[in-house]
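Now for a typical sample entry:
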Amino acid sequence: MVKENLSPRQLFKQCYGDSHNFMTPNIIKYGKKGHFYYELSKGRGISFNYNEKEKMLYGVTILTQPQPGVPNKEHRLSTVFRDQENCIEYVKWLKDNTLVVFRNKDNDDVELREVFLKEKEVRDLKTNNIVHATVYKYDQGLEAKTKANVNHTFKAKSEDEAQEKAIDHFTRQYSSPQITDIHVKVDIVKEI
């Protein structure tokens, strides 16, 4: 009799028994995202240098369940990364791109891990933004309100992020015991 409500851990146990991946034998967790069941694990691969953190590998093994209680190994979807965060993002990406994944999972010409990494690179891309701003402040030494027109270039994913960085940067730049009431007004943010 097939057991229908298996946990991710039970599905992996049913599929792989007590065997572990020799590259990443240390299980971190089991989970489910959308149609995908995953095992997140880590290990040192075939490296014998146990002192270097960068030699750590993080694996994500994927199963689907086409019928209740019947796991299916998804070798083409399983992969390895150098950091745990990429594994977690990859599983989320699989869930968010289920149609693309299932259309291409048997197509040897499409390496889904590479598609994920290219999309991630675009998402993480930061551009240079020049920010022109006016800094209003009270100078206790002069006993007067003053202002300064300033500009600086910031790497950011968006104009909003560049603006936040500029406000923080200019506030810190003008902070001193003699300067109070600092207010930064961003005039222009332009990608360069």
The CA atoms of residues 135 and 184 lie 5 Å apart. The chain has a mean pLDDT of 84. The radius of gyration is 26 Å. Residues 127-191 form one domain.
